[in-house]
Protein 1
Amino acid sequence: GQNIDQPTEMTATEGAIVQINCTYQTSGFNGLFWYQQHAGEAPTFLSYNVLDGLEEKGRFSSFLSRSKGYSYLLLKELQMKDSASYLCAPMDSNYQLIWGAGTKLIIKP
Amino acid sequence: GAVVSQHPSWVICKSGTSVKIECRSLDFQATTMFWYRQFPKQSLMLMATSNEGSKATYEQGVEKDKFLINHASLTLSTLTVTSAHPEDSSFYICSARGLAGDSDTQYFGPGTRLTVL
């Protein structure tokens, strides 16, 4: 079957760094996406990894290891507005995104 | 770039009526559009996938006669919830994928909150 494993909830302090881990199993693999979803809003695209390694984009970085079925999203210099759910979504062999429940990140002052 | 709009943002309707939701890709051509539903504090649930000019592919358990999808052009897809009932109340979100930057990326519309009384 296909599944995604992310922590349900994480708490971090404003200005700090947090790493959100994701392990996945899919039928085939065509890359992995990270999306941010604020409460009551639609997801917004953060990053896409198709090759192993680290992709950096401003305060956000995403890492992928295809052999381990593992990815993480690294958020630096946390701001209060980063409080949201973060969705790890691998793409299977049919180019369909597989969605889990995501990780709810709570930022405290 | 890669902006997707949805209309309306929210709608309240009476039980038994039909509601149409529009999804538009504003600055790119969407070869594929996806319709999702999300209940509070739950993950996104894919309802159907539609390619321009062809019939939508529905996920298991989604009634195609109840959720009518039309993808008549490369920039517009519509979802019609027919004979809506209170259990259809949910957050409906479309996404589009196509000729925008990385063509594998899905860009989401802002969502439509449907409340059926």
Protein 2
Amino acid sequence: GENVEQHPSTLSVQEGDSAVIKCTYSDSASNYFPWYKQELGKGPQLIIDIRSNVGEKKDQRIAVTLNKTAKHFSLHITETQPEDSAVYFCAASEGGGTSYGKLTFGQGTILTVHP
Amino acid sequence: GAVVSQHPSRVICKSGTSVKIECRSLDFQATTMFWYRQFPKQSLMLMATSNEGSKATYEQGVEKDKFLINHASLTLSTLTVTSAHPEDSSFYICSADRATNEKLFFGSGTQLSVL
């Protein structure tokens, strides 16, 4: 089955700096890669996703890059703000039909943005 | 984004009792919903796929007789933890596949504590 590795496990930055979280996956059949933000006691919130036919996607301060050959994808947050502090999870699935929901998650990254 | 509602948000029960958790897609129809479990400071693990009008499919190691899933309509799936024990204490999160744009949205989660 799929295995997703996520690094770092914790990340501390100053407000305004950039933050980068990296994930690798093992199953070459995976083609859907979402990123979720989870605050304490709440469900994960989808912040951005990318499919394997795209190498990069950007949404305001958030961007995701995908290298399918190397089987890794990264989340980039620019101009970080204290409210970006949360746990971030990467995930992967084969996509297509109902498989989008059968996600394998990374271990999570605790991001702390200091004012 | 799409809204997935989960209820209750928190439940405390005695060992041996059963607990039902509801998951609703509020603004879209979901033929497929997914149930995940998350232990403290850990990642999310897929438990089962809930299919409207048919039996749920369970991931390896998940007891289907203990975690009963019913998906009776296109907007509602329920998870019943039967004869709950302290080791079942966890954060249970549902998600729904919005097939129109193939994105997965999560509910707010249910914290189950079994005494």
